[in-house]
Design goal:
Blueprint: H1 3-20, H2 25-32, H3 36-44, H4 51-60, H5 65-69, E1 84-86, E2 89-93, E3 103-110, E4 125-132, E5 134-139, E6 142-147, E7 151-155, E8 160-164, E9 169-176, H6 177-183
Antiparallel strand pairs: 1-2, 2-3, 3-9, 4-7, 4-9, 5-6, 5-8
Amino acid sequence: MKQEVLDDVVRQRIRGLRLARGWTLDALAARCYLSPSTISRIETGHRRIALDQLVPIAAALGTTLDQLVQPEGDDDVVIRPEPESSAGLTLWLLSRERDRRGATIAKMRITPERVVDEPRVHPGHEWFTVLSGTVRLRLGERTILVHAGQAAEFSTMTPHAVEAHEGPVELLTIFDHDGERAHLPGHRHG
């Protein structure tokens, strides 16, 4: 691969990873101790890319120098989630960090073994759609069954618990920042 083409790929990756995180030029510059104008000139091709600049840029973007200069690949687009499991719950994070909307997107598989003793309350909203099975949503004094193909959206200031009803359930959910802290204990984002 010619150097000019490789440089273009690297520039596109830097810009793509920055935008995927919802970061401005200033935000990336602050994280890698370069000026916003330097980042801009690197992204637009008005400045030659120096190795001593690529290392902190790669680190700030949560990648490696090797991945940044790799001739081919789709890691800037494709997310390959690793399952995280606890009793009766498997979670696949489908978003990089929290996206620019302040949300975390996840797929969850819940089995009847997961029992929520105490419904939770926290600021914000939660949304999910049921991919398969049936969710038993305890919301305040109500118990609502949400079937495959249906979705639910509710204020998380109401005590709530999401459980499997008569068998495993898979759902796609979006947490806001407060929901992430409440539902994903010990899970940290940058």
